[in-house]
Inverse folding.
C-alpha cells in the first residue's frame, strides 16, 4: 500500500533543522515497523504542492499544523473540498491533530479554540468503542503526547466518538461514511520532539511551569 501524506505544517523555525524530515518522516518511522511493504509519498500543501486526484490514492494521512481550520491560507479551502471528495469516494483517510480537526470541519463538524486552553503533555483517553479492526485484548485507555488549543467541539453527524477525555471529549473519531479515522493526539511525536516543541513555545504562549509539567508527564 502507498500512503500519501498531506503535509500541512512544519516544525517551528527554531527546531526545524534538528528534524529535517519533518512530520512525514516521523509518520514513516512510526508505521514502517508494522508494515515493511508500505510505501510513502509526501504532498506538501504548505510548500505549494498541488493536491492529487484522491481516486488515484491508496490511502491518505493528513498531518498536524500550527494553523486553525479557520485560518486563511492558499490551500485551506481547496483541502477541505478535497477531503469531502476523498470521503465520497471511500478513500481510506487518517487525520492527526490539525488533520483530525480539518477532516471534522470539512465533513460538517464545528472546530474552534477551546475555552479550556492549551493541551500539552501526556493525555490519557478512554475508548468508547472497540471496533473489530482493533483486534483482541484492546485496553480501555490509551495515552499519547498532545499539543493543541483547538478542538472538535461538535463532531459531524455521521462521526462516532471512538475515544476522549474530560479535556477533549471528541479526541478520536471514526466515520460511518467511509474508512476515516482521526486523532487529536500525536502518536508520531517522540518524547524528545515534544520537549523541543514545548520549549520552542516558551512565552508564546506557554509558561516555564507549564512546559516543565508537560515534559515530566
Amino acid at each position: 500500500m502507498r500512503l500519501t501524506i498531506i503535509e500541512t505544517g512544519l516544525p517551528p523555525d527554531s527546531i526545524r533543522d534538528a528534524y529535517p524530515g519533518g512530520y512525514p518522516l516521523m509518520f514513516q518511522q512510526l508505521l514502517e515497523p508494522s508494515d515493511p511493504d508500505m510505501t510513502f509519498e509526501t504532498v506538501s500543501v504548505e510548500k505549494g504542492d498541488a493536491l492529487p486526484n484522491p481516486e488515484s490514492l491508496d490511502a491518505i494521512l493528513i498531518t498536524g499544523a500550527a494553523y486553525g481550520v479557520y485560518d486563511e491560507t492558499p490551500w485551506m479551502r481547496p483541502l477541505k473540498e478535497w477531503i469531502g471528495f476523498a470521503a465520497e469516494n471511500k478513500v481510506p483517510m487518517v487525520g492527526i491533530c490539525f488533520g483530525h480537526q480539518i477532516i471534522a470541519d470539512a465533513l460538517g463538524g464545528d472546530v474552534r479554540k477551546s475555552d479550556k486552553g492549551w493541551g500539552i503533555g501526556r493525555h490519557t483517553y478512554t475508548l468508547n468503542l472497540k471496533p473489530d479492526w482493533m483486534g483482541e485484548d484492546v485496553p480501555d485507555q490509551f495515552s499519547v503526547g498532545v499539543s493543541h488549543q483547538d478542538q472538535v467541539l461538535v463532531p459531524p453527524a455521521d462521526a462516532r466518538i471512538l475515544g476522549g477525555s474530560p479535556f477533549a471529549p471528541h479526541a478520536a473519531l471514526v466515520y460511518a461514511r467511509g474508512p476515516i479515522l482521526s486523532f487529536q493526539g500525536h502518536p508520531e511525536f517522540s518524547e524528545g520532539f515534544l520537549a523541543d516543541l514545548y520549549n520552542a513555545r516558551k512565552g508564546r504562549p506557554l509558561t516555564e511551569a507549564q512546559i516543565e509539567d508537560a515534559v515530566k508527564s
